[in-house]
Design brief:
Elements lengths: L21 E7 L3 E7 L5 E4 L4 E2 L9 H10 L2 H7 L6 E7 L15 E8 L4 E2 L2 H10 L7 E7 L22 E6 L4 E5 L16 H8 L2 H13 L6 H20 L8 H19 L1
Helix pairs in contact: 4-7, 5-6, 6-7
């Protein structure tokens, strides 16, 4: 599977990026790299920045994005137009909490930004990729500006815009030209990753903090909206994914000492109690 495209800082970008032509400026989102391809059978194979998971699931922090893609990606539409589906690789971000606390209700679990064609040995044109994501029922990263003149772009004076996914500044922008040359310009606030306070508390306390009735209620409502049977497995799996997505910054801190197996067990207990009492 094609590896992730390089995205150097704008100061280290190849000189041809700004030599001429036109640029696309896209919001640089604070997610985790995820890529996928589709086999002839229709099975979706996932990978992160460094590994491809052909025979097993990606790590837990990616499960929310994997489910999102599996449930929404229009395989029938894709397979109807792709003679060799495995020659395409879709690149994007799994949107869970790192530095920026996005509005998780409006931020999709996956935002796509590139599609690689092995047959053409190049990335699809940016406008083509954007339309393809939409047609295949996945959200592309939002484009801030199309066809900006490269010679007019000044990274020293450019003002990073507001994010489309929360009420605050974007992490930065991706600067791309039609030849596939690209770079990133980060807002000074996000150039260095914020320190995270190590999480404290026993699994019972943390499960009570995160597996709230309101959070479980929202999962149940989403299942009903999508006509998914309200079973323990359906609610519990989505609840864990929801917690990991929104609380990733704390739960996966390097200095964390919480036993995740016990934590999941406590979350399961909360789920069973809620379903027994309410559903």
């Amino acid at each position: 599977m094609k590896k992730f495209p390089s995205l150097p800082r704008i100061a280290n970008a190849p000189p041809e990026l700004l030599d001429g032509g036109h640029l696309w400026l896209q919001e640089k989102v604070d997610g985790a790299n995820i890529r996928f391809s589709v086999a002839q059978s229709g099975m979706i194979v996932f990978g992160d920045r460094s590994r491809v998971y052909r025979t097993k699931e990606p790590p837990a922090p990616y499960h929310h994005a994997v489910r999102h893609i599996r449930e929404r990606f229009d395989r029938e539409a894709f397979l109807s137009v792709a003679d060799d589906p495995e020659s395409f690789v879709f690149f994007g971000e799994a949107m869970h909490h790192h530095t920026i606390d996005y509005d998780w209700e409006r931020t999709p679990s996956f935002l796509g930004f590139d599609i690689w064609s092995a047959e053409r040995e190049e990335f699809l044109p940016l406008d083509t990729a954007e339309r393809a994501f939409v047609r295949l029922k996945l959200d592309p990263v939002n484009t801030v500006e199309k066809e900006a003149r490269a010679v007019d772009f000044d990274s020293d004076t450019y003002e990073i815009p507001q994010s489309a996914w929360y009420d605050g500044l974007a992490e930065g922008i991706g600067v791309k030209n039609k030849n596939g040359t690209r770079a990133k310009l980060l807002h000074p606030r996000f150039r260095e990753v914020e320190e995270t306070v190590p999480l404290t508390g026993d699994p019972t306390t943390l499960a009570k903090r995160y597996a709230t009735d309101r959070r479980i209620e929202k999962i149940v409502e989403k299942c009903r909206d999508r006509e998914i049977p309200i079973t323990f497995d359906a609610v519990y799996d989505r609840l864990v994914e929801d917690i990991v997505r929104e609380e990733h910054k704390e739960l996966y801190h390097a200095e964390m000492t919480v036993d995740m197996r016990e934590f999941r067990s406590e979350v399961a207990a909360h789920t069973r109690k809620y379903l027994a009492d309410q559903v």
